[in-house]
Amino acid sequence: MKVAVLTFPGSNCDYDLYHAVKQVGGEPVWRWHRDRGLDGMDAVLLPGGFSYGDYLRAGAIARFSPILEDVVAFAESGGPVVGICNGFQILCEAGLLPGALIRNESLKFQSEDCLLRVERTDSSFTSNYETGQILRMPLAHAEGNYRADDETLASLEDEGRVLFRYVDASGEATPEGNPNGSRNNIAGILNAHGNVMGMMPHPERAMEPLLGSDDGLGVFSSLMASLAGTH
Amino acid sequence: MSQTDSAPTQSLKPTEVRPREGDPQITEEVVADHGLSPDEYERVQRIMGRDPTFTELGVFSAMWSEHCGYKNSRPALRLLPTQAPWVIQGPGENAGVIDIGDGYALAFKVESHNHPSAVEPYQGAATGVGGILRDIFTMGARPIAVLDSLRFGDLDSPRVRYLFSGVVKGIGDYGNCVGIPNIGGEVQFDRGYEGNPIVNAMCLGLMKHEDLITGVAEGVGNTLMAVGARTGRDGIHGATFASEELSEDADLDSRPRVQVGDPFTEKLLLEASLELIKSGHIVGIQDMGAAGLTSSATEMAGRGGTGVEIDTSLVPVREPGMTPYEILLSESQERMLVVATQGKEAMVKEILEKWELEAEVIGRVTDDGFFRVTEDGATVVEIPALPLTTGCPTYEREGIEALEIAELRDVELPERESPDRDLSEALVSLLGSPNIASRRWIYRQYDTTVRTGTAVGPGGDAGVVRIRGTQRAVAACTDCNGRYVYLSPRTGAMAAVAEAARNLVCTGALPLAITNNLNFGNPTKPHIYYQFRQAVDGMAEACRIFETPVTGGNVSFYNETDGRAIYPTPVIGMVGVIENVDHITRHAFRQPDDDIVLLGVNTNELGGSEYLYHFHDLVAGAPPSVDLLGERSLQQAVLSLIQKGQVVSAHDVSDGGLAVALAECALGAEGAPLGLEVTLEDALAPVPLLFGEAQGRIVLTCDPDQTDSLLETARRHGVPAKRIGRVTEGGEGIRMTAGEYELRVSSHDADRAYREALPERMDRTLTADAE
Question: ipTM of the assembly?
Answer without folding.
Answer: 0.96
